[in-house]
Write a structure and sequence with these properties.
Elements (H helix, E strand, L loop, with lengths): L1 H36 L5 H24 L7 H21 L1 H6 L1 H11 L9 H12 L2 H12 L2 E4 L2 E4 L1 H17 L4 E3 L2 E3 L26
Antiparallel strand pairs: 1-2, 3-4
Helix pairs in contact: 1-2, 1-3, 2-3
Amino acid sequence: MRQGRHGSVTAKAREIVVLLLALLVVFLVVNIAHFRYLRVHVVMFAALMDAVAALALTMAGYWLVRRAHTPLLRTELALTGMLGAALLALYAVMGPAVIDRSLSIYIVEKVNQRGGEISVASVPAIFVEEYMPEYRLVDVRLTEQLRAGTLVLDRGCLKLTAAGRRLVAFTTLYRHTLLPRRRVLMGETTDALTDPFRDSKQRVDTTCPAAPGTEG
């Protein structure tokens, strides 16, 4: 009896591993094809969509092929699917999204591009004059927020939506309560990033263009 149970557990474990590997392969095929040949508005959202598509294809294919022979119960199959979905979501956030948007990675890449060393004093200028145009930072971030529905573009003016206000309320609360208050930044211990607008000075005129017919 013990050997039978052990064999059953081993068979189930093997089946789960094979199913997760199949899910990974399907996801990579879908994701690579999507990123190479189809339009992508937001990298992370697209990767998450690919994860959902891969999960649906893999689970449906598995059920069609293996349902008569699978050692997994339906609950075990569902839990395996949930585990696979969590792993793919983690990849979507930590993989393409991080590579696409990480300033930290860009700094390392830029040091490599410049022969392995750059002066610390040049980094702010590199960020403004090279990083932003090279990575089309403004276009990428605006596209993300417009697609997410936190902002709308109305006659050349960005306007905050109700979803945007809720997001700001959450991020402000999170910064004030959960971010470190004794963070070390280039040798200085500070809580500046718990309230980054605390000492902010408005150096740029952000007034929206007047609507047609309202001038004067």
